[in-house]
Specification:
heterotrimer; A mainly alpha (402); B mainly alpha (328); C alpha+beta (276); B: 328 residues; mainly alpha; Cytochrome Bc1 Complex, Chain D, domain 2; 15 helices; 46% helix; rod-shaped; C: 276 residues; alpha+beta; three-stranded mixed beta sheet; three-stranded antiparallel beta sheet; 9 helices; globular
Chain lengths: 402, 328, 276
């Protein structure tokens, strides 16, 4: 072992309270594994928002449809990176795709990711943008033109029949896509919820809680991006759209809160062997991140803000300000949720007799800066995508010109 | 179906095909042979060479040591537990002989309430006066020979036997007339009983003592021992000893746990050394060193002593004034 | 080590080339070849995994008599030497726990040799000793409990491994393929016993494997060999007279955390209700 790592662990050893099994001193799933479910949650949530328009024909949210789709896509592209960087042997990652062990929740990654990214997101984006790609290919100068042409598979068919087919395809994909989005984040929750050795994780509710919090965070992110984008472009925010989406957000937060409260009450009432150590865990290690950040600031305060914004006839600007504050607080809250599950689940000994300590590194592959970079990266991808693909359907100049 | 959808399906199909071919090409050799793992890895894991070699390996060279070890209480403590892994030995060099035996032995024998009562345990603060364990205990045969023999003899009868058989050599008062034969006056009775019994049984041999002892009955031995113990050990100063008593004093630290700091010990099983004849002491130590006298503990103690060390030790003990044994 | 890796890389390349040429030949011949994943070497052998050892004939099991353990930690020392486990206070294939009930207390005080007090007593992280920290206390009941990988009948670590780098061998031992492990550490999370640890340098998980390289050569695991008081028992359950078969038959044995359904193959005598 390198002396630096050993010294780090030795220092952590002095901060252990109670008894732990000797090998437990190391926190194996670090900040990167906090980032992973956070990002996939945003993907699932953003996609589900995008689906609303298509499947349930909610015209009000139409202005955010493409944005939500591109957001889901750019976060999905980045999602595997934290997993990859965290591996002891990243170069062996392909094994999980070549010969997945079918009893392993984690091995489902390849299927779920492949299916969701290739089978759902990419196809939906393609069908949605196909017409625009063809138009762009006609307009754009040399290098970009070829990219657009390749992306449209060298087709230039924007006949009524073809576009009608595209619309049907999008609808079919979305219908398949909603359960797929549930599957994507439900599976991430299952990775944790199925670990019977860990009473903090092991719960049938965890996948559902993950899913609901994913929807909450995804919707909040799209609202955030929509408002920012409007400000950058100096465009009017469609308040009807914003009011509708924040209503969804409000209900999603309530369902999420209810589920988490149910999970908590259930554990407390059953009072199994582990209840004592989990109580100590919350009091001593997770008070700030769970009680203050996740529940108070990340859930109750945003709920209150949304109630105020809806029930009092506030001005547009006042509502915008409140919505914006709420969605930022919600992001903090959901990130804390991921932290509390991933890190919190590793801070107590499986002997139920002691607590460990996690010290986040700043530098290094598993440090704070890497995590930060991974959280910024999807926004960079999104910026590039928005530059290339318009968030509003193009007016067909070709037709008008003709 | 529109043409662009056909193209898309072809692209997806090609992607799937590439994936399947990749799976066929790159899946590790021997995977799936017995299950969802590389069968070859079982053999790879089994192929590793053992590091600890077991006592049988040590026996092939150290047969004598092995014989002693395997006949004694520590036979459950393997060679490599104390001497380290034998992998690469002897090619790569010697294995260590633990220096700090107090640290090593206390791993098992320090008194702790957590240990089962059947485990022999010592209170480190009370036992051995801080000396290394190997000073008294031979790690390969740790049990001390110093089982205190019962003494129930009649001193008066012993005096009569002494006058008949022993006085000519060991002196009328148990003070030997020359430097080669030991003084017996004031010597521990339990020690005398043990040592005479050893001459008698042949466990210990001496040209002169063996035939003498064989004529003694068990009663005679008891009586003699009781008689000698009662005599005064005060002896006239003998000639100057060959060794350096001051140097001997430093060496004697290693003997103090059993024989006392000045050669007056507390355990009657072991002999008093203070005021003993220097030449006798030196000869005896050399006999231990050469294996002529057998005692597992002494064998370990004298192993490292030079002739000069022995002379110095002998000089030191010979110069000490004997006294009544301190009772423990 | 380097040489071995080089050989491994060469081997992989050779395999790849062989498959490529096979594919080429198949395409040339116009037939679809059957997937020939079997390595001829393994298939040809009569006994597996080595010529002298047939894993289908054995069913290994381990016994621990906690009433005999004296807490000397020679097992830990032997294991570290035998298996090249880093000499730190944070990585152990096997370890020993101490449970002490003091008079007037109804919960035991628990520590292992990796506790800072015990590390201080041993002098360094590279040596292992229990400090005599209760010598002046009134001890009501106290004992040691050795721990190691339980080689479960239904190992959760094997269940969760995404790639099949850890698996249950036919003779019952749960092995880790260090050349295949991707280092995701899901297995570490899944083990309720804390038996697995991560080797930062090798980037793979490691754990006790009952000294598979020794038991397949007719030797005892290093810890069993080293234990001076016979607190550790090892053997083949297929042999009704083996030490482990007798141990299980002649004692009322217990396993750790039976409620998990993992069905451990390390059997204990002398456990206390507080041991988990």
């Amino acid at each position: 072992m390198n002396p630096e790592a050993t010294a780090r662990l030795s220092e952590l050893l002095t901060q252990v309270t109670g008894f732990i099994y000797p090998n437990e001193i190391e926190i194996h799933w670090s900040i990167l594994i906090v980032v992973y479910p956070y990002i996939t949650g945003l993907v699932a949530g953003a996609f589900i928002l995008a689906s609303l328009e298509n499947v349930f024909n909610v015209e009000e949210v139409r202005p955010t449809y493409r944005l939500a789709l591109l957001t889901a896509f750019s976060f999905m592209v980045v999602a595997p990176l934290p997993l990859l960087l965290h591996l002891g042997h990243p170069e062996r990652f392909y094994e999980i795709l070549l010969a997945p062990n079918l009893t392993s929740a984690m091995a489902m990654f390849g299927f779920v990711y492949g299916w969701y990214l290739m089978g759902v997101l990419l196809l939906e984006v393609w069908f949605e943008y196909r017409r625009d790609l063809i138009i762009l290919a006609r307009r754009a100068p040399a290098p970009m033109r070829w990219i657009y042409r390749a992306a449209s598979l060298f087709s230039s068919d924007i006949s009524e029949a073809a576009l009608a087919f595209d619309q049907k395809a999008i609808r079919a994909i979305t219908i398949v896509g909603i359960p797929s989005a549930f599957l994507l984040h439900g599976y991430v929750g299952f990775i944790f919820g199925s670990v019977k050795a860990n009473p903090w994780w092991s719960s049938v509710l965890i996948p559902i809680v993950f899913l609901m919090s994913a929807i909450v965070s995804g919707i909040a992110l799209v609202i955030f991006l929509y408002m920012i984008l409007a400000a950058i472009r100096k465009e009017q925010v469609d308040m009807k759209c914003l009011d509708t989406i924040t209503s969804y957000l409000f209900y999603a937060v309530i369902v999420d809160f209810t589920l988490e409260a149910l999970d908590f009450t259930h554990r407390l009432y059953e009072s199994e062997e582990s209840v004592r150590i989990l109580g100590t865990l919350i009091r001593q290690k997770l008070f700030l991140s769970l009680i203050v950040l996740q529940i108070l600031l990340g859930m109750l305060v945003p709920l209150a803000i949304l109630i105020v914004a809806k029930w009092h006839q506030l001005s547009e600007d006042g509502r915008k300000l409140l919505y914006f504050t709420a969605v930022i607080l919600i992001q903090v809250g959901i990130f804390s949720t991921r932290w509390n599950i991933v890190i919190g689940g590793q801070l107590f000994s499986k002997s139920f007799r002691g607590l460990m300590e996690y010290k986040m590194a700043i530098m290094g592959l598993e440090g704070f800066l890497t995590a930060l970079a991974l959280l910024i990266l999807p926004f960079v991808v999104l910026a590039v995508l928005i530059k290339m693909l318009p968030t509003k359907p193009l007016l067909d100049e070709a037709h008008t010109a003709a | 179906m529109p043409k662009h959808v056909v193209r898309l399906l072809i692209l997806l199909g090609a992607g799937l095909a590439v994936g399947l071919i990749a799976k066929w090409l790159f899946t590790a050799e021997s995977f799936y042979e017995f299950g969802h793992y590389r069968a070859d890895s079982v053999a790879e894991i089994a192929a590793k060479e053992p590091v600890l070699q077991t006592a049988a390996y040590c026996q092939s060279c150290h047969s004598e040591r092995h014989a002693q070890w395997s006949a004694n209480n520590h036979k459950t403590v393997t060679c490599e537990t104390c001497h380290g892994a034998a992998e690469g030995h002897p090619q790569k060099g010697k294995l260590p002989i633990p220096a700090d035996t107090r640290k090593l032995c206390s791993l098992c024998h320090e008194k702790m309430a957590e240990r089962p009562r059947t485990q022999p345990q010592i209170d480190l603060a009370q036992h051995g006066a801080g000396q290394q364990c190997a000073t008294c205990h031979n790690p390969h045969a740790p049990k001390l020979a110093g089982v205190v023999a019962k003494v129930s003899g009649d001193a008066a009868a012993g005096r009569k036997k002494h006058a008949e058989s022993c006085a000519s050599c060991h002196g009328t008062n148990g003070i030997s007339p020359n430097d080669t034969w030991p003084n017996l006056a004031g010597q521990n009775a339990a020690y005398l009983v043990r040592i005479l019994a050893a001459y008698k049984s042949g466990a210990q041999t001496d040209v002169m003592m063996s035939p003498m002892a064989q004529t003694l009955g068990d009663g005679d031995i008891q009586n003699l021992a009781a008689y000698y113990e009662g005599l005064s050990c005060k002896a006239p100063a003998s000639g100057k000893a060959a060794g350096d008593a001051a140097a001997g004093k430093a060496l004697a630290q290693n003997c103090a746990a059993c024989h006392g700091e000045t050669g007056v010990g507390t355990n009657p099983a072991w002999p008093q050394l203070a005021g003993q004849k220097a030449v006798y002491l030196a000869n005896t130590l050399k006999a231990f060193r050469a294996g002529l006298r057998k005692d597992p503990m002494m064998a370990g103690v004298v192993r490292g002593l030079s002739d000069a060390d022995i002379a110095n030790l002998a000089a030191y003990y010979a110069a000490q004034s004997c006294g009544p044994r301190k009772t423990s | 080590m380097k040489k071995r890796e080089a050989i491994g890389a060469l081997r992989a390349r050779r395999l790849f080339l062989r498959k490529i040429s096979l594919a080429g030949a198949a395409v040339a011949a116009g037939v679809v070849p059957k997937v020939a994943a079997k390595s001829e070497a393994a298939a040809a052998q009569k006994s597996f995994p080595t010529p002298d050892y047939d894993w289908s004939k054995r069913q290994w099991a381990f016994g621990v008599d906690a009433t005999k353990c004296i807490g000397c930690l020679r097992c830990v020392e032997a294991c570290k030497r035998e298996n090249g486990v880093p000499l730190t206070a944070h990585h152990f294939n096997t370890w020993v726990e101490r449970y002490v009930y003091l008079e007037g207390e109804n919960k035991p005080r628990v520590d292992s040799h990796a506790d800072p007090v015990n590390i201080a007593a041993s002098g360094s992280e590279r040596e292992y000793r229990f400090a005599n920290r209760y010598q002046d206390a009134k001890v009501e009941k106290a004992f040691f409990v050795p721990k190691l990988c339980n080689q479960c009948e239904h190992p959760p670590c094997v269940q969760v491994c995404p790639v099949g780098a850890t698996y249950k061998a036919k003779d019952g031992v749960v092995l880790i393929d260090a050349k295949y492990c991707i280092g995701c550490r899901y297995c570490v999370q899944a083990c309720p016993y804390g038996a697995r640890w991560f080797n930062e340098e090798k980037g793979v998980t490691q754990k006790c494997y009952w000294c598979y390289h020794r038991i397949t050569k007719g030797l005892q695991p290093a810890c069993v060999e080293a234990c001076p008081v016979g607190a550790r028992v090892f053997g083949d359950r297929n042999d009704k007279q083996s030490p482990i078969s007798l141990f299980i038959r002649n004692n009322r044995v217990h396993v750790l955390k039976p409620e998990t359904g993992n069905a451990p193959n390390v059997f204990y005598v002398g456990l206390d209700k507080e041991v988990n």
